[in-house]
Fold this sequence. Notes:
- With 165 residues, the protein is of the alpha/beta class.
- It has helices spanning 13-25, 40-49, 81-89, 109-121, 135-140, 144-156, and strands at residues 3-7, 28-31, 67-73, 97-104, 126-134, 160-162.
Amino acid sequence: MQVLIAYYSWQGHTAKVAQALAGQLGAELVQIEPVAESGMFVKAMKAFLGLKSDIRPCRVDLAGVDHLVIASPVWAHKVPPYVREYLSRVTGGSGKPFSVLVEMGGSGADSAIGIIRRALEAKGMHFVASAFTLEEQVNNGTFGDRITSLADAIRKGGTSQVGGR
Ligand SMILES: Cc1cc2nc3c(=O)[nH]c(=O)nc-3n(C[C@H](O)[C@H](O)[C@H](O)COP(=O)(O)O)c2cc1C
């Protein structure tokens, strides 16, 4: 199964989790890169308002991909504007499965997952699994079990939610 993991990470936590998941699934990683990073206030405001921001060209076409994973930090209980832009650019996903991984300080996973889910379902894709990790778990290296459970759910293909505290 060919899995594509598209991730955005400002401070490295989501990158670590996405890389661990890619290692378990033998997945291809695509980094979502902003054309320009903004300051913290603008970041938070754009996320809060549900805006998009320009990203560098990267793989958005899902030809040859069997399963898409979006890995994103939670910003303002929502997702970064760069992730919204990536979601709007995805093509060739109709009928294909996707899963969602969010990384956060402590709250907002459900609403962030919901945003990603709705954007891809609107493109005819179908949701398989979601999970969240906490910044603290990434910092102390205890997120592995959660990623293993998500990888299992993706391999199985049934709908599931990994996590809880
Ligand atoms: C602009 C901004 C808004 C954030 N909003 C939230 C939030 O609503 N809930 C939360 O739990 N963490 C929030 N965080 C914390 C990040 O989700 C957390 O630090 C995460 O590990 C960052 O991932 P990264 O290192 O891949 O960038 C926010 C961080 C930033 C920069």
